[in-house]
Amino acid sequence: MKITILCVGKVKESFYRDAIKEFEKRLSRYCKLNIIEVADEKTPDQASDTEVAQIKEKEGERLLKSIKEDGYLICLAIDGAQPDSVKLAKKIESIGINGISHLYFVIGGSLGLSDAVLKRADYKLSFSNMTFPHQLMRVILLEQIYRSYRIINHEPYHK
């Protein structure tokens, strides 16, 4: 399966980049992984609701340009489903079994995802009701994808 992780913004901290590289290496035996970063918009202090909507819309347009119609789109969203690791593994496995060869995960910017991106989603996934920095979320997502493949292949992984 091909997995593309679409992210708004770049990862600046070297410790996050190191963790991302490690999971990219680990995942290389299970899937073809691609991470695409799109530019984030500057958010003015005390941005109005209109400004927030415009920023999310611009970032959303950039994200949607990278998604092919035949791909399955999972958006990370606070109101998404909160499966445990085994259920997430089953979800990823079932997507492949159903003949879908390209799976997309989308991580929004600091303001979240646009309505257009969320409407395009085939599934919304949440790791918690808490808010995390999107750089950290990238590491958490990669770890959970890796854990999913270990579960799918009946391979040991710490619990």
TrEMBL record:
Keywords: Cytoplasm, Methyltransferase, rRNA processing, S-adenosyl-L-methionine, Transferase
Localization per Swiss-Prot or TrEMBL: Cytoplasm
EC numbers, comma separated: 2.1.1.177
Domain of life assignment: Bacteria
Residues reported to bind S-adenosyl-L-methionine: L76, G108, F127, S128, N129, M130, T131, F132
Catalytic reaction annotation: pseudouridine(1915) in 23S rRNA + S-adenosyl-L-methionine = N(3)-methylpseudouridine(1915) in 23S rRNA + S-adenosyl-L-homocysteine + H(+)
MF terms (GO), sorted A to Z: rRNA (pseudouridine-N3-)-methyltransferase activity
GO cellular component: cytoplasm
InterPro entries membership: Alpha/beta_knot_MTases (IPR029028), RlmH-like (IPR003742), tRNA_m1G_MTases_N (IPR029026)
Top EC class for this record: transferase
Main location as per UniProt: cytoplasm
Function, in words: Specifically methylates the pseudouridine at position 1915 (m3Psi1915) in 23S rRNA.
Complex formation: Homodimer.
HAMAP family: 23SrRNA_methyltr_H
Family according to the record: Belongs to the RNA methyltransferase RlmH family.
Name by which UniProt lists this protein: Ribosomal RNA large subunit methyltransferase H
Source species of the chain: Roseburia porci
Lineage: Bacteria, Bacillati, Bacillota, Clostridia, Lachnospirales
